[in-house]
Amino acid sequence: METAIATRVPDNVLEVIFSFLSLHDLRNCSLVCKRWYAFLNDENNDVWRLHCIRKLAEEALKSDLLSSVPTYKAKLRAFHHAWNPNDCSRNIFVKPNGFTLHRNPVAQSTDASRGKIGFRHGRHTWEVIWEGPLGTVAVIGIATKDAPLQCHGYVALLGSDDQSWGWNLVDNHLLHNGDAQGNYPMLNNAPKYQVGERIRVILDCDDNTLSFEKNYEFLGVAFRGLPDKKLYPTVSAVYGNTEVSMVYLGPPLDG
């Protein structure tokens, strides 16, 4: 039953109150009554706009980087899933926009970074945009917390053990447990990745599969039989000053 207070508070007052609450508190508020649920379900209202302004860099909000997440709430969600500045190689830092990692020009080193949030249930999609040179090895995919984030030499770090799964964009090979798992996508003369293209990574924890999509074309399932572990968006890079952005999109849109 809706409380009398909840139904009487004007929208403009709700906006002010909700704009100062934490995301956890807002989740609880959405359960109070149908009106508050509907109010917070509007992903473009001033509550989410103000939270975005406080959390996200102006550079990110004004750039095309977040064009695939059009609402304020979706942009905020993407920020909370972006690269983790505390879970990356010492040779990598996350730029002020919050979504782009930068690999420092360190010789004979391969460096990786994981996202802030891992997934064990449900279906999840995120975009990866490689905005700098690929170098000899450029791998995107997923990893557990046990996968290493730095090693000596220029190697395919992501996919080098049984805790990570990757697609090397340079030679179109799938990698896991230190072995090449075949070419991907399964096309004759499959085109190589062009810097700046958006690749969508699709992790299905219900079906235990990892797939990729490029230029809105589904490329097929890359890996099956993923373990029942928390899996994190991950990339590994070797080229100095290369930059890679990641934007979490939410559940994939089928069809």
Show the helix and strand layout.
Elements: H1 4-8, H2 11-19, H3 23-29, H4 34-40, H5 46-55, H6 58-62, H7 72-81, E1 83-88, E2 92-94, E3 100-103, E4 109-115, E5 123-130, E6 138-143, E7 150-152, E8 164-168, E9 173-176, E10 179-183, E11 198-204, E12 209-214, E13 217-224, E14 232-237, E15 243-250
Antiparallel strand pairs: 1-4, 2-3, 3-15, 4-7, 4-14, 5-11, 5-15, 6-8, 6-14, 8-9, 9-10, 11-12, 12-13
Overview of the structural elements:
The two termini are 38 Å apart. The longest helix is centred in the first third of the chain and has 10 residues, at 46-55. With 255 residues, this protein is of the alpha+beta class. The mean pLDDT is 91. The chain has helices at residues 4-8, 11-19, 23-29, 34-40, 46-55, 58-62, 72-81; strands spanning 83-88, 92-94, 100-103, 109-115, 123-130, 138-143, 150-152, 164-168, 173-176, 179-183, 198-204, 209-214, 217-224, 232-237, 243-250. Strand 12 (209-214) and strand 13 form a beta hairpin. The chain has 7 helices and 15 strands. Helix content is 21%, strand content 34%. Strands 1, 4, 6, 7, 8, 9, 10 and 14 form an 8-stranded antiparallel sheet that branches. A 7-stranded antiparallel sheet has the order 2-3-15-5-11-12-13. The chain is elongated.
